Amino acid sequence: MLIKEKRGDLIGRSNVNRMMKYRTGMKSSDLIIEAIRAVPYGRVASYAEIADRAGIPGGARLVAWILHSCSEKYTLPWWRIVRSNGEIAISDETGRMAQKELLLKEGVSFRSEWKVEKSALLRRDMIDDNRGENNE
User: Is it true that domain 27-125 has CATH number 1.10.10.10?
Assistant: First the structure.
């Protein structure tokens, strides 16, 4: 994965943590974890939206990797993260059903079998400054 810097340089994945730590004092994984925790109860966000909020445009795959490897360790609300089109990204049937059931328990409506209603998608103007308080 490469991220294009403002000055036009390409930065490899191994340098992303160093770059983000230099800019913010936090590693990119910490910024992504913080952004995931900020998704309010009853809402969903896309992988790309989480990456953007963490200051890593184009980092959707990094978000997916962190969700896959760190959800249990950091008790992340993994079920609140979907594709940009609102579709559940998990391909295996058991995981898909588990995610859908968790979202339904939070009151999220679906417009088709695996796509959430557009009204449930978190928008840029809905940033929650009280990170973690909405994670029931």
Answer: yes
Domain residue ranges in the chain: 27-125
The reported pTM is 0.74
* Residue scoring higher pLDDT (88 or 25): 88
Number of Cβ within a 10 Å radius of residue 5: 11
Tens digits of per-residue pLDDT, 37-94? 999 999 999 999 999 999 998 999 999 999 999 999 999 999 999 999 999 999 898 9
Contacts of 102 by beta carbon, 8 Å cutoff, 6+ apart: 79
Listing DSSP states for 30-92 in one string gives HHHHHHHHTSPTT-BEEHHHHHHHTT-TT-HHHHHHHHHHHTTTTT--GGGEE-TTSB----S
- By three-state DSSP, how is residue 3 classified? strand
- The pair of structure tokens assigned to 104 is 């339904």
